[in-house]
TrEMBL record:
The keyword Transferase applies. GO terms for biological process: 'de novo' pyrimidine nucleobase biosynthetic process; pyrimidine nucleotide biosynthetic process; pyrimidine ribonucleoside biosynthetic process. This is Orotate phosphoribosyltransferase. Its EC number is 2.4.2.10. It comes from Citrobacter koseri (Citrobacter diversus). GO terms for cellular component: cytoplasm. Keywords: Glycosyltransferase, Transferase. GO terms for molecular function: orotate phosphoribosyltransferase activity. It comes from the Bacteria. The gene is pyrE_3. InterPro entries: PRTase-like.
């Protein structure tokens, strides 16, 4: 596992976005975990999500030329 992947999981656990237990999803399926992305609800949370996304996409070799991406 890459460091940014571990950091993302730790971030999700700290924000209680990722929970483990016994859950019944809306579909009726049972799941041993639940991911509630709605709990990423601050500007800081969204900025960190963007950084994790950039690191993930960057691993595929994509190059971004936009000024929006240059500060990350």
């Amino acid at each position: 596992m890459k460091p940014y992947q571990r950091q993302f999981i730790e971030f999700a656990l700290n924000k209680q976005v990722l929970k483990f237990g016994e859950f019944t999803l809306k579909s009726g399926r049972k799941s041993p975990y639940f991911f509630n992305a709605g709990l990423f609800n601050t500007g800081r949370d969204l900025a960190l999500l963007g950084r994790f996304l950039c690191r993930s996409v960057g691993g595929f070799g994509y190059r971004f030329r936009s000024a929006v991406w240059s500060g990350l």
